[in-house]
Design brief:
By secondary structure, the protein is an alpha/beta fold. It has a six-stranded parallel beta sheet, sandwiched between helices. Strands 1-4-2-3 form a four-stranded mixed beta sheet. It is elongated, with a radius of gyration of 20 Å. The termini are far apart.
């Protein structure tokens, strides 16, 4: 501490420390209308996207005006991460307006923070109209979700609703509802209309009966891969589709493909046996990082 003072570094004030610790919890984020973002790259994504920083702090090069220079010990004291990066910011929560056109990704009681962050990255990548966050889904301000989204949370419009409100909203917008589940139709036989809503459900329980009843289609890709080798090649498949090498449109079907093979609608046995192929994390969503409950 003495050396920090000599170098002009100031530890957190008591109010700052209390505030930052409260923001690690959902009640605190709701109380203050703010969230913590850690990591220089993610912070830059939020600033570039127009979010207002309430606090900037770093152990390295300044992040902008009024940025605090702190020690690594200071960051460890308020971080929720096991190995905090060199920078931390607090942003006032910004509700983005839904885009006028496009598809919708619905998160139905998705509870793993890493899964939610990965799906945010997918939604950002595909430019969905908005994500529909339903009751029981992990808070998007959860530090692990923010970390896993790698800045995508700054760009993806999010709407919040209960299950019944969500179904009513989608039906009022005239959106076909496609629910991902194990016993459905091959995606190639599903009508992926430009305004479709894809429902990705709880990792352990799958979709509720209400979502199944509301669905215009139940879709699964378990029948797409006839062998384990094909399951392992899904990363290459997505890469080929993205680059247009198979001559087909890169569509919302690919979200279902990625989620199906590395996420919520894999059976636990398949998830355990499947290899996780290397992927370029800087250029595409880490669709193989989804976790299963249980």
């Amino acid at each position: 501490k003495g050396s920090a003072y000599l170098r002009g570094l100031m530890p957190w004030t008591n109010p700052q420390r209390k505030w930052l610790r409260e923001l690690q919890h959902r009640k605190g984020r709701e109380k203050h209308g703010a969230l913590v973002v850690e990591g220089r790259k993610a912070i830059a994504e939020f600033i570039t996207s127009g979010w207002k920083p309430l606090l900037l702090a770093t152990t390295g090069a300044s992040l902008g005006p009024d940025c605090l220079e702190v020690t690594a010990r200071d960051l460890r004291e308020v971080s929720s991460l096991d190995t905090p990066p060199d920078s931390l910011a607090v942003f006032a929560w910004d509700d983005l307006d839904p885009r006028p056109d496009g598809r919708v990704l619905v998160l139905d009681r998705v509870q793993d923070p890493g899964n939610a962050g990965t799906l945010l990255r997918m939604a950002d990548w595909f430019g969905v109209a908005y994500i529909l966050h339903t009751t029981g889904t992990v808070d998007f301000g959860n530090p692990k979700t923010v970390q896993a989204s790698m800045g995508s949370l700054a760009r993806v419009p999010v709407r919040y609703a209960t299950e019944s409100e969500a179904i009513t909203l989608l039906q009022s917008e005239g959106r076909p509802i496609v629910v991902a589940d194990l016993d459905g139709t091959p995606p190639s036989q599903v009508n992926w209309s430009p305004n479709v809503a894809l429902v990705v459900s709880n990792e352990g329980q799958g979709p509720s009966q209400a979502w199944r009843d509301a669905a215009t289609a139940i879709a699964t890709t378990t029948c797409v891969c006839a062998s384990r080798t094909e399951r392992h090649s899904s990363s290459s498949y997505v890469r080929r589709r993205r680059e247009g090498r198979d001559g087909t449109e890169f569509s919302f079907y690919d979200i279902l493909f990625a989620v199906a093979h590395f996420g919520a609608i894999l059976t636990p046995l398949e998830a355990k046996d499947a290899k996780q192929p290397d992927d370029d994390r800087q250029h595409r969503p880490a669709h193989h990082e989804l976790h299963l409950a249980g």
